[in-house]
Amino acid sequence: MAREAEETGMVTGSKVKKQRKKKVKENKTRIVHANILYDHAKGEENPNRHYANNKIKTTKYTLLSFLPKNLFEQFHRFANVYFVFIALLNFVPVVNAFQPELALAPVVFILSVTAIKDLWEDYRRHRSDKEINHMDCLVYSRLERRYVERYWKEVRVGDFIRLRCNEILPADVLLLSSSDPDRLCHIETATLDGETNLKQRQVVRSFFDLDCDFDPSKYNSIIECEKPNNDLNRFRGYIIHRNGRRDGLYKENLLLRGCTIRNTEEAVGIVIYAGHETKAMLNNNGPRYKRSKLERQMNVDVFWCVIILLVMCLFAAVGHGLWMFQYGDKRPVFDVLSPEGTDLSPILSAIYLFLTMIIVFQVLIPISLFVSIEIVKICQVYFIHQDMDLYDEETDSHLQCRALNITEDLGQMQYIFSDKTGTLTENKMVFRRCTVAGVEYSHDANARRLAMYQEMDSEEEECMSHGGTLTRRDSVTSHQSARVVLRSQSTKSHRRTGSRAEAKRASILSKHTAFSSPMEKDITPDPQLLDKVNECSSQLDFMRFHSQPMSQLPSDLSDIIDFFIALTICNTVVVSSPNQPRQKVNNALSDRSSLTSLCSSSSSLITNRSSNRGCSSVLSSPSAESTLTKLDEERPARGLEHAFSPVPPNYEGKTWAAEEGELRYEAESPDEAALVYAARAYKCSLVGRLPDQVTVELPHLGKLSFELLHTLGFDSTRKRMSVVVRHPLTDQITVYTKGADSVIMDLIKPPSTGKKLHRKHSFIVYRTQNYLNLYAADGLRTLCIAKKILTKEEYACWLQRHLEAETAIQGREELLFESALRLETNLQLLGATGIEDRLQDGVPETIASLRKAGLQIWVLTGDKQETAINIAYACKLLEPEEEILTLNADSQEACALLLEESLHYIQAKFLCTSTDQAAKTFHMHRLGLVIDGRTLAYALDKNLEDKFLAVARSCRSVLCCRSTPLQKSMVVKLVRNKLKVMTLAIGDGANDVSMIQVADVGVGISGQEGMQAVMASDFALPRFQYLQKLLLVHGHWCYSRLANMILYFFYKNMFVALIFWYQFYCGFSGSAMIDQWYLIFFNLMFSAFPQLITGTLDKDVSAETLQQLPQLYMNGQNSEEYKPYMFWMNMIDAFYQSLVCFFLPYFAYADSDVDLFTWGTPITTLALFTILLHLGIETKTWVRNLMGSVIALFFTVALCYNASCPTCYSPSNPYWTMQRLLQDPLFYMLCVITPLAALLPRYAGVVVLMSEHANSFPERVRMFCIMSYICY
């Protein structure tokens, strides 16, 4: 049989091979065969040979490719090409100015430093890769007929892998078998995206009904699936069996590399994607690189330096030509002849001199500036990471810097765009109150419990000296997509996935359950509602005892029991028992078949976590024939007593009472967890969830098993989710729906029979809507609960059309979306819930501080308008004394009219005379703007965006409600491009990714909505309140340091002007009075090293002062440290200082017998003293002994060099030059007088500027700054 299977596989493989040749151009799918069929075949005959192996390599270089590849990358920077060109030009004899080998030294040094840094980073990647590639896993061997241990790097596409509990997946694997009795496999994706909630994956339907363990040797199917891609939420394909049957493959059948097996003892799968083709590796983009605003300004000034260089060289060339021309036919004795020994014409001499002067003046272009900026930025990022004030002990999370080259942009932000849920709020959903059947239950005891938690938090903050208590206010958001859970953890590149460190971290995370803090779990029930639940349960118990139908239960009590059943089962919560993997039970299927007559319809629409996708994906597809056939089967009539199962199925021998204390809920969103815990508080507990049934426990009644027919997952378009179950009490097919009130209330239909029922229903809807408005005003997150009863014929009709939609090839998502809409109509309202989402600590204070710093804060949220406004007041985004402009329009014409009226109102109120003037003004008024999503869509139209921007600019606060992810990014892009301002976007969810990527700086909150925002961000913070110190302190410091360092580098490089002045005395011949060793290393070593220190450690103001006086941040917003005129002022000042440093020694040594270098060395020394003292004036925080160390280094090098080089450059030589100067009193007098004379204008200018700048601040601020500066 095995031989026949092998031959069949070979034939099939050859056929597929021919087909693949025809489809090479299409390149849409991949076909995977089992490798065991080709164990004895040659490598060329294995159809999987073209796929990537599982060995990962994240390094960029090899031993042979490092040098050429690294140089090639470095030469992508134009400055490096320029410097190499200048160094090579020096090898041309007719134009060279220095020794060619010596001229190469600076370039080689710069390239070497960068190369060593790149080599070290690549070596670290190599070590990480080696650790991952040599991890062990179990791979099936046909020769040994068992699973054998192999390294991860030896795994190939088509291999069968056995996975055990707590084991990390080595590749993307299609699940074919599981020890779980329901053919499920629980995985944890903490090492992939930081989420700690368990997720269910399901065995491929073809292998679902196996009565024995999976045997890889009997596998003879072929898998056809999509090409490798980076979409973690999508997988499509088919498995083709030998008999021609095809079964669909979906995301729920795929286990991704880097995930960890949990609560499942054993699973078997076949590798679909390996190595760099896995979804995790395709998502590993690494750090992001941007160009900062300061760097763009610097590039303009570099261009001006090039112009200055060319002008100086051209001036020298013209001067040399004129100087040569004045001799006529009489050539000077020191004239340089051509290579042929003939005289050069003045014009040709001028051209050669032009090239020579480019070599001499090359340091005018700051060669060391670029590498110095990189070094300083790396050091700045290091110190930011070491700031313990940005560390969150609760989540063990640090700030992360993912973009290494825009740290200075943090000090120049002008607009902040923030999400609300999870960013301003904690995203800890706590059940607060509810209304059922038009009756409201306030849960006052539960409110007091939450107040106690607040007091405990405040006392803890006082004990830890974190400042005063923070008044917490209710906060709100509308129900958005069921989002994935994330315990805040540091983001790590996937190249670390699978390492021991990641495995340990995953193990630690698995011990915790998301959304399960005591504040969220321990809900105090409302006494009135609890009495009704007990009354309802008692009556049901009585009816069960007397075999009475449930229809005799009063409608108000029936609504209550349905309400809590909906809270319990209308979700995707996984019930798990930690450290107890479930075992496979061979008779599980037969036991289950006795309980159900309708097949398990697992074709559920699962939660779509990506908020910008409008429809849900398909879990799996049973055959339509089998489902409809079982619908036609007659179910035996059964009494109420049969609805209760004292021992739930599939858990033979287990006692639920013993396990119940160990059960934990793994929810995909905090909303679901809050509602399940609320139901549990009323003794309506979720105790088990299987693919085809949900088991709940009711008071006095025991366990109820609901047959789960379908799950229609939540998505951002429908804004609701539904479950279709067969009710065990009534045997009716029931649809339970929960979702946002804005959509559920429109789907409610009053009963068609009876005026009394119609009036009662209308009254319930009216009362519920009033309570919903009250909840929103209190800042609660509102959800509506409804149900619908279907006849068997209605459900069969819907199911048939739904299965057609599932099997459609074209437009499957749209058809599934329409199918869900057909089911969720004509609902019966059960009640509504209010869930509290508390503000994060320090949010109001942070917003107030950022506002004082001149930052404009806009909140873009998907929440309903009323609750968003309430949160805006709670976090001090809106103030009570502010006027609120509310823009709600139903059409574009209405929106245009509203914008026009708002502009006229602002003009009349604040004395603006015209629309154009209003559009140009930068004044912020005491106005707040609130706009909903529909109106925002109209306002973002090309014809209205300018008016919208004019209105929004005039307002102090802007709140955009019900906004989509696309609208968020459009708003950010509009403000950034139209106003030409620096923007920062901050959020924590997948729906914030687009605006984070569009903004100049994107900040992700490593909160509870997944890692998508963090992975797309430039910086990641554990909490919103840390944004204050990141911007006001570190942003201010980074900008101030780099701005001053860049200006200093331009200034000090004008040192070459000393040589320019000397050209007037040497016939513009390109000669230099400064030793070429000093000339080459002056900028590279002596004057650059001090600025590296100050650029990393300088602090103009202390951190405490910057936080207490946020107004100081405006210095960076207005680019006060680096304005265009400052560059020219520095150039002019450098020219003046070069004149002083040149001519004072010139006149001092005039008519003396000193040689050229004896006169040039004092000039070099005086220039170094002047530059260092200039740095001392500009530096705000003196680094102890820095200046003295540099001066000592210079003299040490000079003395050693002059003592060891007697005949270096004959006939002139620097031997003993510095030693003689140190014996000359004139040299000491020049060292005192020259720097003072050179720096006198600079010092006077600094004093004047500081006086004017200080006068611009209030007296209180000035005194505070002076005292802080003195103490600092």
TrEMBL record:
Region of interest: Disordered: 1-24, 468-505
Domain P-type ATPase N-terminal positions: 44-101
Coiled-coil features, chain-numbered ranges: none
Keyword vocabulary terms for this entry: ATP-binding, Endoplasmic reticulum, Magnesium, Membrane, Metal-binding, Nucleotide-binding, Translocase, Transmembrane, Transmembrane helix
This protein's name: Phospholipid-transporting ATPase
Residues passing through the membrane, by range: 78-96, 102-120, 302-327, 347-371, 1127-1150, 1156-1175, 1182-1204, 1226-1250
GO cellular component terms attached to this protein's record: endoplasmic reticulum membrane; phospholipid-translocating ATPase complex; plasma membrane
Active site annotation, chain numbering: 419 (4-aspartylphosphate intermediate)
Boundaries of every P-type ATPase C-terminal domain copy: 1014-1245
Biased composition (Polar residues): 477-491
EC number: 7.6.2.1
Catalyzed reaction equations: a beta-D-glucosyl-(1<->1')-N-acylsphing-4-enine(out) + ATP + H2O = a beta-D-glucosyl-(1<->1')-N-acylsphing-4-enine(in) + ADP + phosphate + H(+); ATP + H2O + phospholipidSide 1 = ADP + phosphate + phospholipidSide 2
GO biological process: phospholipid translocation
Binding site for Mg(2+): 419, 421, 988, 992
Pfam name, any one: PhoLip_ATPase_C
InterPro entries registered for this protein in UniProt: ATPase_P-typ_cyto_dom_N, ATPase_P-typ_P_site, ATPase_P-typ_TM_dom_sf, ATPase_P-typ_transduc_dom_A_sf, HAD-like_sf, HAD_sf, P-type_ATPase_IV, P-type_ATPase_N
